[in-house]
Amino acid sequence: MSSETFHEVLQNWAYVFTRRSMHDFQKFIHEAGLSVSQVTALMYLYHTENCGVSDISARIGISRAAASQMLDRLVQMDLLVRAENPSDRRAKQLSLTEKGKALVERGIEARRKWLEDVTNQLPPDQHAAISTALVTLTEAALKLEKQQKKRSPSA
User: Fold this and answer.
1) Residue-level pLDDT at 63
2) What pTM, to 2 d.p., does this model score?
3) Which residues, at least 6 apart from 82, have a Cβ–Cβ distance to it below 8 Å?
4) Least C-beta-crowded within 10 Å: which of 91, 100, 136, 154?
């Protein structure tokens, strides 16, 4: 297979995956009544377990004041809680409530279900080859990401 054909195959898969992923993401946001920034904050907290307002503002790329205001709405919706930071009583620590965790997990489950449906379309005798290729692709992507972070901490 030529390099050009290989790139085209990867681009086609990335297009289909991204289009479907974005469709599911937009549906999730709409059903939850949240903004993209709010969902990004919830996802970040889901994976980090807790953090401060400044971590969220840096992650989303908004001012600390804007992040604080956005997060207040999530607190009001009982999706996250602010608590005193044990190492600095002046700072607030954010974490998801059970309701917040459940909401994020519903979004993750929707994506997982779609991937399961896709894999069910594949003949079982191709699973090993596809798995090997995806592991290799994932490792290459993570290696590139690590290299880019070393060059630019904001990447």
Assistant:
1) 92
2) 0.72
3) 71, 75, 92, 93, 94
4) 154
